[in-house]
């Protein structure tokens, strides 16, 4: 993030990241050619306004990762169109992406991994120390710059991956089950970090998970997909309090738990 980023939540319409709107028109994706094809997802129509935190939930194999890959520009739709900020997405250029495993360079330090991302993002070298410090502070990793990747925990590695994905100033943040491999407590802490960071930066986010609990905690909107090939089974706005909220209180609230049960039921019946 640049030093001009604020640490307060601002309305979407006033934030420079508003360019991150996503639009899927009748999108279908099929893998393979000839007789050996798999229709992975679709048809899906979806509009994600700038600043929204959309969570995609659904049974294993319903096409969640495929949808995310289409939005990132890693795959081209077989039918229909995908637009990010009004144009076709460019792989590596449109969105910061966080995967299930951190995919860091293991022989580099934390600092080396972040600096590489800043270099790819085209940030001038003179700005790296400040930008690096800002990024690491955002994910609670101050003081770890000189540590090697193998010397930090799995949760810390995923924090580095999040900081790296935020290094480029693109307005879209895509996360594909980023906490699935972490223990419950680390997972909750990282959910809190992501909730805070996205509120602070105003980026549009699309997050894939199997967990109704995670979806309700993070999303401003949840889309549940049917079983494969996934189509939209439920499109649910979430209006739980955001900003400076007590995470424990939120997780224990009646509203949170009603939504969690509702989403869990929807996922189950959409998979049937
Ligand atoms: N590269 C590929 N080549 C062929 N088929 C694929 C490929 N990637 C995914 N598929 C198939 O497409 C379908 C959707 O897969 P996808 O990974 O998008 O689902 P998912 O909902 O993310 O699953 P999970 O929750 O298990 O990660 C599945 O049937 C899968 O086997």
Automatic annotation (TrEMBL):
CDD domains documented for this protein: ABC_NrtD_SsuB_transporters
ABC transporter domain boundaries: 22-252
Cross-referenced InterPro entries: AAA+_ATPase, ABC_transporter-like_ATP-bd, ABC_transporter-like_CS, ABC_transporter_ATP-bind, P-loop_NTPase
MF (Gene Ontology): ATP binding; ATP hydrolysis activity
Membrane listed as a keyword: no
SUPFAM superfamilies in UniProt: P-loop containing nucleoside triphosphate hydrolases
PROSITE patterns in alphabetical order: ABC_TRANSPORTER_1, ABC_TRANSPORTER_2
Domain of life: Bacteria
UniProt keyword terms in alphabetical order: ATP-binding, Nucleotide-binding, Transport
Protein name: ABC transporter
Organism, scientific name: Streptomyces fructofermentans
């Amino acid at each position: 993030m640049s030093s001009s980023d604020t640490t307060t939540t601002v309305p979407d319409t006033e934030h420079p990241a508003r360019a991150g709107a996503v639009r899927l028109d009748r999108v279908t994706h099929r893998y393979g050619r000839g007789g050996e094809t798999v229709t992975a997802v679709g048809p899906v129509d979806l509009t994600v306004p700038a600043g929204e935190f959309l969570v995609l939930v659904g049974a294993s194999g319903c096409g969640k990762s495929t949808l995310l890959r289409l939005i990132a520009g890693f795959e081209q739709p077989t039918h229909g169109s995908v637009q990010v900020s009004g144009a076709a997405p460019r792989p590596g250029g449109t969105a910061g992406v966080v995967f299930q495993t951190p995919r860091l360079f293991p022989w580099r330090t934390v600092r080396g991994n972040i600096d590489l991302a800043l270099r790819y993002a085209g940030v001038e070298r003179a700005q790296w120390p400040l930008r690096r410090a800002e990024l690491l502070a955002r994910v609670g990793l101050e003081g770890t710059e000189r540590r090697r990747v193998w010397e930090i925990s799995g949760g810390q590695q995923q924090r580095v991956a999040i900081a790296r994905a935020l290094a480029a100033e693109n307005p879209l943040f895509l996360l594909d089950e980023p906490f699935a491999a972490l223990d419950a407590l680390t997972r909750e802490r990282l959910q809190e970090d992501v909730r805070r960071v996205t509120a602070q930066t105003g980026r549009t986010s699309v997050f894939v998970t199997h967990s109704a609990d995670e979806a309700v905690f993070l999303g401003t909107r949840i889309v549940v997909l049917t079983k494969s090939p996934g189509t939209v089974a439920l499109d649910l706005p979430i209006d739980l309090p955001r900003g400076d909220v007590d995470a424990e209180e939120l997780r224990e609230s009646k509203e949170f738990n009603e939504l969690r049960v509702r989403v869990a039921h929807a996922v189950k019946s959409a998979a049937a």
